[in-house]
């Protein structure tokens, strides 16, 4: 079961990136990137491994520090107002590291407290962990971890969802549930940015995503 969409989270622009650049050891990874995601819009960031997708998403989430440029989430500048910007964001990375010592249920309850949102049966249904919800989350498989974090992120409202390969490691029922969750959040007014390898992924069509291509440090629209 997918959690019921929250009341529309109004924001003039869910995400605005202007002139963002990043280098590693002198190598240009991102150069003068500019991108906007409107409320209710789904944007697909397309590119092969090594194109810089995860770096760009990390710059949006604040886990990677850009060399220059600005990131604004729901009107909040990430540098000037990092707490407000991150409060308006839900970020699902490709590699999921979970804190040690917490069960799946405790991790959900922690996110509910952080997001000041009620812990819902719908979130437990989305995690689909059965009795394993009371096992240590660090013992979970890749798919179980991804379902758990998606369920945790579903708690409360957010203006922007940023997901890096959100369907990797999920079986078909879990992929369908994750797809329904992202569609529901977009329908409720959140902007959604999804990273993917291939523009022909069928779920991109189901999301009605606008594709942008990342290559050689630059963004471009497909021909």
Count every beta strand, where a strand is a DSSP E run of 2 or more residues.
10
Supply the number of helical segments: 7
Which range does the strand content fall in?
Answer: 25-35%
Strand and helix order? EEEHEEHEHHHEHEHEE
Using the 3D structure, state the CATH architecture: 3-Layer(aba) Sandwich
CATH evolutionary superfamily: P-loop containing nucleotide triphosphate hydrolases
Mean pLDDT level: 92
Distance between termini?
38 Å
According to CATH, what is the class? Answer: Alpha Beta
Radius of gyration: 17 Å
Provide the helix percentage: 25-40%
- Large-scale geometry: globular
Uncertain residue segments:
1-10
Number of domains: 1
Widest sheet, order of strands: 6-7-8-3-9-10
Overview of the molecule:
This protein is of the alpha/beta class and 223 residues long. It has one domain (15-220): P-loop containing nucleotide triphosphate hydrolases (Rossmann fold, 3-Layer(aba) Sandwich). 30% of the residues lie in helices and 26% in strands. It has helices spanning 53-61, 82-87, 104-114, 121-127, 142-153, 172-187, 202-207, and strands spanning 15-24, 27-37, 42-46, 68-73, 76-77, 89-92, 160-164, 191-196, 210-215, 218-220. The strands form two sheets. The chain has a six-stranded mixed sheet with strand order 6-7-8-3-9-10, sandwiched between helices. A four-stranded antiparallel sheet has the order 2-1-4-5. A hairpin with a 2-residue loop joins strand 1 and strand 2 (27-37). Helix 4 runs antiparallel to helix 5 (142-153). The chain is globular and about 45 Å long.
